[in-house]
């Protein structure tokens, strides 16, 4: 093939620079043979088109990484716009498949021959363009500087006719073999026959905006357009699936149950908030529900906090209706909501009964999941199978599918594969599961991956000193711990009691629920109020939230013995786990899941300290970096808001 040497040079450079997304070391390891073969097959059409148009000086990126996530663009071309002379970029997704099937009920769900449903490739590249424009400072406010293309270089129009039904845009068009001349013209229209090095460097050096916070996104529509989360890949698939399910039900279709499953940092809460925003804008009756008090109260607070004078009281009342708890949904009439969005659905309980429930209702209690499903025309559950924290919490994908089938309802399960925390390190997410032996996993050594920073501390003081250094540079930091110490009420002077005591180091827990302490936030706002620094958080106040840096104290309830972590149930102070009637399997699940949550709160890095000496020794064999000897890491440039 013509211009094959250029392709070979690119592939060789790719192999030289590539690092595996899982288990890579500082020197890098070669990519899998199948991946190299895919590039050898898919790159030549792009290179040929560039050279034939006289665009040999355009800069070509392979697997250009998107900010804050492990997602990347197959090919990004950087050059000069022939009209304006400004930097110009073309994002290309390459597809080798020869056919495609669009789901009959889901217009953005496509099977490209792998027997599973993925986001429509045109929507995929459209979202990649939107994402870069939102988070790269050099592109913010300049959507016209980016175009997107899907190149299916092995197929003809007739083989993928259904794919053309999705609306195209400047950020996403589909090109087959039949449209290859149009693809060449696109390149000529967007890129001049000039060196693209400067445009490439502009993009590489561009500062990055942080993703929006809850307070930026969770606003009433009438208060102006809020910030928004840019959803990618399976996130966008889930988002569109819910909208289409609502339309079908409104047009006379039957109730549908949608389950979205993903690990920590996969963007479940982003989907939930974006769904609430877009469904509300579309005029649907939507309720956000959770089993986590801290999350629900934070959403209520942020919804009304920026209201103009005279509106705050009304918005607070509205927020109480819009953001509720799982156990409150049983009070709603059947199908009274178009959509109920259940975030943190792993915390769904077997029943909604509590100590205030009348005896007759206790004896005839229905499954809480059934009550939720009954309340909405389209119930949506977002969950992680490994984040339930109490013995009575039963929210797994398998359980919810079982309940949908028992009620005779159709269900859709969407698995989220992306990673939007831990600097996009899916490898770190998987490493934590293996370290804790969650499910069928076994521990493995942490190999630094150039994304997430993982350090060990030899003492809690060393940990807090390290975190304080980052806090002083503007990073958000918190210390969290296993529930292995008593949690006292404030003392007679109204001060917090330093319950978390390790040798000569001590700090208080966050404020106990139902109490107020001057200078400290309420328990439910510990994670989002800067005054929470200096208090230790537990899993109930940390779940859902994230921090730039997190310190994790592994208490005596989780110790390393004979090559793996084991549970010591006698060391827990969690009142939900102390009764002897709770079986070992529940204790084991809840403690491991709690540390799974705690270890995955960090955006930039995590510092780990274990109170048990043998556990500290074992961890040194699994993590080579400490706060005293961290690996050098180039700091990410943060764009000013």
Counting helices, strands and paired strands, the structural category is alpha/beta
Oligomer state of the chains in this structure: single chain
Major sheet details? 6 strands, parallel
Question: What's the helical proportion of residues?
Answer: 25-40%
How big a fraction of the residues is strand?
Answer: 15-25%
Cα(first) to Cα(last) distance is 48 Å
Count of alpha/pi helices: 18
- Count of distinct strands: 23
Tell me the number of structural domains: 3
Short structural summary:
The chain has 641 residues and is α/β, with parallel strands linked by helices. It folds into three domains: 202 residues, no CATH class; 202 residues, Rossmann fold (3-Layer(aba) Sandwich), CATH 3.40.50; 199 residues, Rossmann fold (3-Layer(aba) Sandwich), CATH 3.40.50.
Describe the structure.
With 641 residues, the chain is α/β, with parallel strands linked by helices. The chain folds into three domains: 4-205, no CATH class; 214-415, 3-Layer(aba) Sandwich (Rossmann fold); 422-620, Rossmann fold, CATH 3.40.50. The chain contains 18 helices and 23 strands. The chain has a six-stranded parallel beta sheet, sandwiched between helices. The chain has a five-stranded mixed beta sheet with strand order 1-2-3-7-8, sandwiched between helices. α9 (293-305) packs antiparallel against α10 (312-322). The longest helix is centred in the first third of the chain and has 20 residues, at 33-52. It is globular and about 80 Å long. The protein starts with a helix and ends in a 21-residue tail after the last helix. Residues 20-27 and 632-636 have low confidence and may be disordered. This is Schlafen group 3-like DNA/RNA helicase domain-containing protein. It holds the Pfam family SLFN-g3_helicase. InterPro entries: P-loop_NTPase, SLFN_3-like_DNA/RNA_helicase. Residues 255-612 form the Schlafen group 3-like DNA/RNA helicase domain.
């Amino acid at each position: 093939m013509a211009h094959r040497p250029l392709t070979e040079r690119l592939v060789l450079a790719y192999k030289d620079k590539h690092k595996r997304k899982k288990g890579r070391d500082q020197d890098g390891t070669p990519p899998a043979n199948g991946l190299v073969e895919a590039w050898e097959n898919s790159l030549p059409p792009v290179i040929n088109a560039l050279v034939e148009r006289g665009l040999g000086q355009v800069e070509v990126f392979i697997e250009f990484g998107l900010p804050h996530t492990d997602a990347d663009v197959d090919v990004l071309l950087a050059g000069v716009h022939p009209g304006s002379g400004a930097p110009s970029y073309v994002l290309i997704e390459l597809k080798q498949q020869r056919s495609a099937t669009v789901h009959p009920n889901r217009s953005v769900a496509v099977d490209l021959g792998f027997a599973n449903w993925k986001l429509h490739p045109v929507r995929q590249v459209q979202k990649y363009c939107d994402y870069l424009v939102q988070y790269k400072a050099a592109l913010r406010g300049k959507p016209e500087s980016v175009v997107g293309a899907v190149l299916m270089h092995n197929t003809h129009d007739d083989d993928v006719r259904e794919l053309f039904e999705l609306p195209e845009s400047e950020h996403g068009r589909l090109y087959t073999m039949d449209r290859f001349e149009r693809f060449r013209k696109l390149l000529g229209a967007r890129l001049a026959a000039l060196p693209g090095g400067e445009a490439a460097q502009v993009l590489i050096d561009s500062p990055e905006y942080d993703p929006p916070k809850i307070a930026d996104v969770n606003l009433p529509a009438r208060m102006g357009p809020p910030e928004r989360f840019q959803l990618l890949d399976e996130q966008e698939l889930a988002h569109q699936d819910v909208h289409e399910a609502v339309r079908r039900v409104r047009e006379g279709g039957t109730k549908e149950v949608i389950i979205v499953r993903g690990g920590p940092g996969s963007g479940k809460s982003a989907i939930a908030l974006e769904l609430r925003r877009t469904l509300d804008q579309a005029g649907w009756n939507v309720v956000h529900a959770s089993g986590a008090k801290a999350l629900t109260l934070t959403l209520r607070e942020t919804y009304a906090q920026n209201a103009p004078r005279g509106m705050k009281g009304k918005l607070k009342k509205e927020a109480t209706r819009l953001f509720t708890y799982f156990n409150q949904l049983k009070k709603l009439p059947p199908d009274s909501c178009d959509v109920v969005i259940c975030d943190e659905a792993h915390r769904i309980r077997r029943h909604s009964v509590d100590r205030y429930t009348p005896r007759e209702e206790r004896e005839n209690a229905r499954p809480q999941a059934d009550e939720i499903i009954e309340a909405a025309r389209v119930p949506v559950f977002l969950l992680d199978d490994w984040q339930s924290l109490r013995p009575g919490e039963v929210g797994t994908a398998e359980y919810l599918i079982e309940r949908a089938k028992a009620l005779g309802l159709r269900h859709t399960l969407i698995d989220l594969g992306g990673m939007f925390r831990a600097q996009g390190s899916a490898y770190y997410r998987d490493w934590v599961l293996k370290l804790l032996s969650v499910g069928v996993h076994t521990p493995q050594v942490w190999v630094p991956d150039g994304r997430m920073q993982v350090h060990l501390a030899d003492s809690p003081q060393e940990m807090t000193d390290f975190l304080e250094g980052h806090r002083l540079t503007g990073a958000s930091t918190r210390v969290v711990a296993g529930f292995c110490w008593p949690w006292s009420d404030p003392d007679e002077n109204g001060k917090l009691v330093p319950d978390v005591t390790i040798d000569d180091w001590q700090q208080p827990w966050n404020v106990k629920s139902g109490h107020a302490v001057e200078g400290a936030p309420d328990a439910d706002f510990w994670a989002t109020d800067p005054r929470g620094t200096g208090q230790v958080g537990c899993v109930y106040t940390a779940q859902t939230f994230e921090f730039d840096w997190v310190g994790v104290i592994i208490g005596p309830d989780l110790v390393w013995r004979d090559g793996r972590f084991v549970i010591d149930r006698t060391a827990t102070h969690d009142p939900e786990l102390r009764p002897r009637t709770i079986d070992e399997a529940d204790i084991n699940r809840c403690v491991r899941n709690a540390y799974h949550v705690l270890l995955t709160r960090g955006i930039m890095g995590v510092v780990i300290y274990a109170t048990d000496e043998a556990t500290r020794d074992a961890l040194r064999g699994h993590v080579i970096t400490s706060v005293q000897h961290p690996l050098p890491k180039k700091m990410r440039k943060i764009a000013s808001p």
